[in-house]
Amino acid sequence: MAGSNEVNSNESKMVVPLHTWVLISNFKLAYNMLRRPDGTFDRHLAEFLDRKVPANASPVNGVVSFDVVIDRTNNLLARIYRPAPPNPTTPLADLHRPPSPDPFPVIIFFHGGSFAHSSSNTAIYDSLCRRFVSLCGAVVISVDYRRSPEYRYPCAYDDGWAALKWASTEPWLHSGKDAKLRVFLCGDSSGGNIAHHVAVKAAESGIEVSGNILLNPMFGGNHRTESEKRLDGKYFVTIQDRDWYWKAYLPEGADRDHPACNPFGPNGMKLEELPFTKSLVIVAGLDLVQDWQLAYTEGLKKAGKEVKLVYREQATIGFYLLPNTDHFYEVMEEIRNFVTCNLKQPANI
Amino acid sequence: MSSSFRSDMGTDPYDSVGDDRWIIASASDRGSSRGEIDSLLHGAGYRVRSTDLRHVAIGLEQLESTMVGHQCVASSAEAIHYNPSDLTAWVDSMLSELAPDPHLLRHPQSTATANTWADPTQQRPSLHRLENHHQHRNVPAVSLQSMDEEEDAAIRLVHLLVSCADSVQRGDSEMAGSLLDQTRLALARVNTGFGIGKVAGYFVDALCRRLYPPPPSATGGGGSAANLEILYHHFYEACPYIKFAHFTANQAILEAFQGHDRVHVVDFNLMHGLQWPALIQALALRPGGPPLLRLTGIGAPSPDGRDALREVGLRLAELARSVQVRFAFRGVAATRLEHVRPWMFQVAPGEAVAVNTVLQLHRLLGDRASPEGSDAAAAEPIDTVLEWIVGLKPKIVTVVEQEADHNKPSFLDRFTEALFYYSTMFDSLEGGRVGGSHRGGQQQQQTVVAAVAEAYLQREMCNIVCFEGAARVERHEPLARWRDRLGRAGLRAVHLGSNAFKQASMLLTLFSGEGYCVEEVAGCLTLGWHSRPLISASAWRADDADDASPPRDHQTLVLQDHSSSITSGSNNVVDGDDHLHQHSVMRSHMGSSDRINDTGSGSSCSRV
Questions:
Q1: Are A186 and A108 in contact (CB under 8 A)?
Q2: For residue B563, what pLDDT is reported?
Q3: CA-to-CA distance for B82 and A92, rounded, in angstroms?
Q4: Interface of A with B in 60-89 (CB under 8 A)
Q5: Is there a cis peptide before residue B478, judged by omega within 30 degrees of 0?
Q6: Segment among B163-172, B439-448, B451-460 with least mean pLDDT
Q7: I want to staple B394 with a disulfide (CB 3.0 to 4.6 A). Which of A174, A313, B353, B461 is the partner?
Q8: Of the listed ranges B244-248, B409-413, B542-546, the one predicted with least confidence
Q9: In the predicted model, is pLDDT for residue B23 greater than 90?
């Protein structure tokens, strides 16, 4: 196997910049240590290895952050990021005032980690959320959802939904003359999957979502797609680890055609009748699950839902974590456009 | 240097002079040393010198081939010994642990293309107008450095502490002593004002004390009972654990007392009686009117001729009078709980009894039989006490205990468990303080309260680490074990209910910083810091507690009474109280309360 590993790594090194390679390889290595063959997860080691940063109510590059408990019944934490209040000496109560008299977006962000890794205070996601604030003038709510395998489906979705409901009851998050919550659901990897399912719930419950932003969302199915076979093990991710994470998240005994994993598969739900929001789906061309992501996009289109696909041919997973490529900057620009356009005219009905 | 290397210096285009020269805007151009920390990876939480990136990348590759398959599990045991932030050191250390064969290390020329990372020109970011982005990483290198070095030192400190405890357990006092010296050095490099440094400092002291115990006269049991009460009070103020305990227990007691006219609470550790005003007031507001409330408070004897228990009783009686609750108090002074006997409470027939034990039952445990031990441990005081508790046929027994296993047979296990437990505890003191109040004036007072609260916790920690045998009283065991034990004694769990849960959660929002969390576990509640439960509250009843028959060893008290008692002096007592009234007359002849004779051993340290 050594020979083919060498080939694999050489290929990936041709395409992947050094920093990205170091960062993602390090994650891969660490994550391999955490997944046990029996389906359990070394949570203690995971927390030890995870690089975390505290919230910071002092402005850093014009952004402040603070942690809140959204739901005491299950200790749901979230980290809120927002533009720094104008007067640096006023008390922290100012954190709960709207950042602007004009309409502003609220982005509820679900970090990635294949449902098992990372937290809202993980450094890479803290950086990303701060960037979203600067990018869109948004208030970003990063949800510290319960992770598998300790908490399986539907816990992560429940937590996402709780966050959305919470946001809808916070007056300071409403803006514009019509005092509306202009909320976008955003997530990468498993977070993208969560964003989709929370958006479905929102559509079912009559909470208006201005848009979904899915970065390399995590979907799958029983069938082995062409991209999975072609890219297995080539760019940091293997079919085997994808299978492990699904097994850890989905209910015991379920397979990958469970609607959580495969929303447009044989057990999927029909979205035609629902006022499901608009979506921006970003797919990396070196991500082995891209066929599922593309199928998701097709599924949305077939159901009559508006979706914009941004396909970055030479991007790997995690490209949005480091600002060192065109992919990064151009995708950020796409996100900014999407949010700005859908801010003034909240999506659908 | 190859062009691909130069390109990946972690530069941000907006640091550059112009868009053609971004490749050259490397560390050297900024005029700083080649050892500049890479800013891109720093944003991800890693400290790597830009010049080391390639080396790290190769190391990661090699680690991966070394860790194929079954070795993943072994390597995770190694992973905790190195600071994951310092990627270079982490990768190097992991490699030398897992692949000691030097040929496996560092062969940059192994394959011709091994070093080739992507051609930078393909990856060159285009210029953007988003100028604010470039400010993200203008963190001065100096502060970066010191912050991460500190993290390094902290991890080494923990490692040393645990190794030292291990030598202590093995009886290698020479090694332990030497490690202790090293630990002290490591401690000097860490900020001991907060976080792991602070906790570690206490544990270093405790280990030192265990290795080199002070002469018995100097020990003094860690201070007088009055001193302990002060510490306890500060701990009560600084964080919500005791308030939570009181609140939850009172809820259960209140519910158990419904429909009863005469109720009797036995408090295993009265202290300042902080738990009882709330119950008295709640009973006063009870629909149908308050019952007659008797409170028996157990506590340590006061050394200086004061009757501390009586003083507390008087205060509570005063409060009860003010809200028109008929109230009677009795104090039972004892240095050790196992010296208390149920007849001292004088439970009257027809009374509904509540037994309240907040952080007390663990003191009655003994050494746990080791897993390979054949016999069960000798009968422990806990069994006797539980027996008579059940004998009282209580309507409710409220049990609050630390949620930790500090009674494991192995010293090293206890030590490590305590290190993590108190570390979390201290974090919560720190975090709760910051979050709880933003008003400047209160900050200073809070600092003092928190500091004294720490001293309270430090006593516990010291007891766990330094003492053995009868002197080691902080024998915390987790809820699961208490469940078994209480079940075997004939007690049945009373589900605390969602009401208690919701109210406990509300209590937290009123009093504490974000980060505390209440959880419900099979009818019991736990309060913890973030995801770690630290204290549990549960409620129990005897199997057949419906008829309040008199306790077995009831005796006519008069002359053999060793306790003081106080009545609230109201005229509206029902006849069951005549004997209490009479009793107070007796008391006045007896003078201050006699103490239960102390036959137990004083504190003692064991040598390694």
A1: yes
A2: 35
A3: 37
A4: 60-62, 67-69, 72-73, 75, 77
A5: no
A6: B439-448
A7: B353
A8: B542-546
A9: no
Query: Are A29 and B518 within 8 A, CB to CB?
Result: no
Cβ contacts (< 8 Å) between A326 and chain B: which residues? 123-126
Instruction: Give the closest residue to B302 by CA, choosing from B594, B586, B566, B560.
Output: B594
Mean pLDDT of A76-97: 81
For the segment B370-376, the average pLDDT, to the nearest whole number, is 48
pLDDT given for residue A333 in this prediction: 95
Among A12, A65, A189, A279, the active-site one is A189
Asked if A10's CB is within 8 angstroms of B116's CB, the reply is yes
Q: Where do the H-state alpha helices sit in A50-181? A: 123-136, 155-168
Buried b / exposed e along B361-374 (16+ C-beta atoms within 10 A): bbbbbbebeeeeee
The confidence score (pLDDT) of residue B324 equals: 94
Q: Is the pLDDT of residue B429 over 60?
A: yes
The overall average pLDDT reported for chain B is 72
Residue in chain A closest to B127 (alpha carbons) equals A329
- Secondary element (H or E) of residue B5: helix B3-7
B514 lies within 8 A of chain A by CB? yes
**Which residue intervals of B107-215 are DSSP H helices?**
120-123, 141-170, 173-188, 195-211
Name the closest residue on chain A to residue B84, using Cα atoms.
Answer: A49
Q: Cβ contact (<8 Å) for A6 and B111?
A: yes
B438–chain A Cβ distance below 8 A for any pair: yes
Q: Do A124 and B43 touch (CB under 8 A)?
A: yes
Partner B contacted by A310 (CB < 8 A): no
- Selected residues 37-56 of chain A with any CB under 8 Å from a CB in chain B: 42, 45, 48-49, 51-53
CA pair distance B1, A18, nearest whole angstrom: 14
Provide, as residue numbers in chain A, all residues whose Cβ is less than 8 Å from the Cβ of B114: 6, 9-10, 13
Q: What is the pLDDT of residue A233?
A: 92
CA dist., res. B505 & res. B515, Å (int)? 12
Given a contact cutoff of 8 angstroms between Cβ atoms, the answer to whether B99 and B66 are in contact is yes
B257: how many CB neighbours lie within 10 A of its CB? 25
Q: DSSP letter string over A253-292?
A: T--TTSTTT-TTSTTPPP-TTS----EEEEEETT-TTHHH
Element (H, E) at B599: none
Q: Please tell me if residue A2 touches chain B, with a CB cutoff of 8 Å.
A: yes
pLDDT recorded at residue A188 = 97
Range B500-506 contact pairs with CB under 8 angstroms and sequence separation of 24 or more = B500/B248, B500/B251, B500/B252, B500/B525, B501/A73, B501/B525, B502/A73, B503/B247, B503/B251, B504/B244, B504/B247, B504/B248, B505/A72, B505/A73
Chain A residues touching B5 at Cβ < 8 A? 18
- Which one of A9, A62, A73 has the shortest CB-CB distance to B61? A9
What mean pLDDT comes out for the span A15-24? Answer: 91
User: What digits encode the pLDDT tens for the residues A270-322?
Assistant: 999 999 999 999 999 999 999 999 999 999 999 999 999 999 999 999 999 99
Instruction: Give the C-alpha separation, A216 to A149, whole Å.
Output: 21
Nearest to B277 by CA among B242, B317, B232: B317
pLDDT band for position B189 (50/70/90)? Answer: confident
| Residue B223 pLDDT | 57
The total number of residues shown for chain A amounts to: 349
Q: Which residues of chain A make contact with B438, given a CB cutoff of 8 A?
A: 91-93
Per-residue pLDDT at B338? 86
Q: Is A287 a catalytic residue?
A: yes
Question: Of how many residues is chain B composed?
Answer: 608
A189 is catalytic: yes
Q: What is the ipTM of this complex?
A: 0.90
Give contacts of A85 with chain B, Cβ < 8 Å. Answer: none
**Given pLDDT bands bounded at 50, 70 and 90, which one contains residue B146?**
low
Beta strands in B454-515 (DSSP E): 491-494
A325 touches chain B (CB under 8 A): yes
